[in-house]
């Protein structure tokens, strides 16, 4: 097995330098994606920075699609494996936006409520940081950038909820809702006002979790999902009509 640890004597003085070291590590070991990265504790000790800094750097790399993480397995190079892609593809073809948002309305408020009670101080800091990133990304004209940070924020809540089955359910839903066949509809649903409102809701959810107010976190999350549901409804109603087949066809 390849050793993916940074040099044992290496020390960095900032989060940016730590992220730079990890990026270089990923490039050097790109040919061996099956090899797990060192643990957060090991990276923290070797780089001389706190585990919070390491966790922030890994979250950024995950949002960029450079690594994937799974509880109980470790952290690996590249995007999450597509072993379950066929079944997810079938699920995506059998469902629609209405069903996805309906499931999210049932799951994610509870997820936010659990996160408010169970999140660690580091997890709360990460949730806040991702909410702030979304607020910045909402000004970006590149939809993919906003999608990455949005998924990372909601995943951080699922992780903070402390329930592995709930996390697995969230990841399935997240992969389906980000299916490439639906990207154009999601893009039409994102208006400037809608992106601003969504960013404000993310920030409010983060603050409710930090205040350990589970009921408030759940309520805002419910409003957040309902807002997206309404936007998607409008986007689908204004979608171009399918061409009508002629009698000859």
Runs in which pLDDT lies below 50 for 5 or more consecutive residues are 239-249
DSSP E strands, number: 2
What CATH architecture of the largest domain do you see?
Answer: Up-down Bundle
User: What number of structural domains do the residues give?
Assistant: 2
Topology as a string of helices (H) and strands (E): HHHEEHHHHHHHH
The CATH superfamily title of the largest domain: GntR ligand-binding domain-like
CATH class descriptor of the largest domain: Mainly Alpha
Q: Biggest sheet: strands, sense, closure?
A: 2 strands, antiparallel
Through-space gap between termini: 60 Å
Q: How much beta, percentage-wise? A: under 5%
- Report the total helices: 11
The SS-based structural class is mainly alpha
Percent helix, as a range, is 55-70%
Radius of gyration: 20 Å
- The mean pLDDT is 81
* Form type: globular
Strand order of the largest sheet: 1-2
CATH topology of the largest domain: Four Helix Bundle (Hemerythrin (Met), subunit A)
Written account of the structure:
- The protein has 249 residues and is mainly α.
- Helix content is 67%, strand content 3%.
- The chain has eleven helices and two strands; from the N terminus they run H-H-H-E-E-H-H-H-H-H-H-H-H.
- The protein has helices spanning 15-28, 40-47, 51-63, 85-94, 97-118, 121-137, 143-160, 164-177, 183-189, 192-210, 214-237, and strands at residues 67-70, 74-77.
- Strand 1 and strand 2 form a beta hairpin.
- It is globular, with a radius of gyration of 20 Å.
- It starts with 14 loop residues before the first helix and ends in a 12-residue tail after the last helix.
- Residues 239-249 have low confidence and may be disordered.
